[in-house]
TrEMBL record:
Pfam families in the record: FUR
Record-given protein name: Fur family transcriptional regulator
Entry superkingdom: Bacteria
Cited InterPro entries: FUR, WH-like_DNA-bd_sf, WH_DNA-bd_sf
């Protein structure tokens, strides 16, 4: 298990430290995206700044991606293997209006949007809102 975590960090050129391994372990257990606050709650000791820096490193190295789900709270989820977070890699996100969780939909890619000549695309977000299977009933 630990070895698996280390390999995952190393595959993204992230030096495995105790803190990074812990954060990755927590992220791997999530079914929904987590906010910085969620992560802080999972730690008794580690301070905010350290957790934030760890997430930033993960984001810069393409291990996690940040999600804007319209709540104003930045959420993070693990990237798929081989993701380079390019516009053509980006998948749709789903925000559940019931449990207020945000989910990655890795099999649903954001469709290519034709750009007029004077515009250059840098990133694209597509958020679908609705109810997850647990809340729809
Ligand atoms: Zn990514
Ligand atoms: Zn839900
Ligand atoms: Zn995602």
């Amino acid at each position: 298990m630990l070895e698996e975590l280390e390999t995952r960090l190393k595959s993204r050129r992230i030096r495995p430290t105790a803190m990074r391994l812990l954060v990755l372990e927590i992220l791997q257990k999530q079914t929904a995206a987590v906010s910085l606050q969620d992560l802080e709650a999972a730690f008794v000791k580690a301070d905010k700044v350290t957790i934030y820096r760890t997430l930033k490193t993960f984001e810069e190295k393409g291990l996690v991606h940040c999600i804007e789900d319209g709540t104003g709270i930045r959420k993070y989820a693990l990237c798929e293997e081989g993701c380079v977070c390019a516009p053509e890699d980006v998948h749709v996100h789903f925000y559940c209006k019931g449990c207020k969780e945000t989910y990655c939909l890795p099999t649903s890619k954001v469709p290519a949007v034709p750009m007029p000549e004077r515009f250059r695309k840098v990133e694209a977000n597509l958020l679908v809102q609705g109810f997850c299977s647990l809340c729809d009933g």
